[in-house]
Predict the structure.
Amino acid sequence: MSTAEITEEHNDVVHDHPSDSKYFQIALILGVLTALEVATYYVDIGPVLIPVLMVMMVVKFFIVAAWFMHLRFDNSLFTKFFVGGLVLAVAVYVIALSTFEFWSKG
Amino acid sequence: MSDTATSDHATTTGMSHNKLAMWVFLGSECLLFGALISTYLVYRGRFATGPAPGDIFDIPFTSVSSFVLLMSSLTMVLALSAIKRGDLRNNRLWLLTTALLGSLFIGGQVYEFTTFFREGLGYTTSPFSSAFFTLTGFHGVHVSLGILMLMSMFISSLRGSLRKEHSETVEIIGLYWHFVDIVWIFIFTVIYLVPSPTS
């Protein structure tokens, strides 16, 4: 085994990033979820529409963040900074929307 | 490109500070887009005499644009995977593909804006139109900046100055690109797919 191969193998162990075929599988899942989201525009699923859309949106968000942005493989501090900003944004704007009575007016 | 772009150099924290800075920046971007999305939600029902969102959105067209942007995240991660292997030819191929998919998305947005304008929805037509164009316009600017960064990496690679040891540069710009995709995942669902008011 050459030095380059040993180095590459070492890097793979350290980063433990997925293979290209895994990325294609993840993209397929994201594509299917997007197709399901779009299907809700054509098929009436009643009062569960918004919760279903929100769940699919959050699942897609976490798949991209965890796999494509490598958060599940990288230092947890990166996740903390990103999630910190996200949680702060959600909290601030839920409060802001509440002051505009968004939830009751729709 | 200097060797400070490599991921293996020692730092005081034991992690890449460049990558950490990008994550802090992306965390702050959540607040920017949160403000724009919230503003849109507050104003989406205020379309006065102009077109209402439910009357004007073309969901099939936007769905295709969304799919294009989603797939650009796949090509971006393949570009990173290629440069980590030292496969510079495929790295260039996937970088260029990502930039082309991003350009296709921007082209779709320009077409959408033009169509809306012809149908009577200008920037100052109503609070809804101002909030809509500001939100999607800001996102479009982010995508455009991403395309410029991708093309600059592509040109650097052609000149031989983007090599395997610079894979962290590709990773950091990739993080920005994926974030832009994530923001669109939110916008597509909340603005387009959640039923909008009609006139």
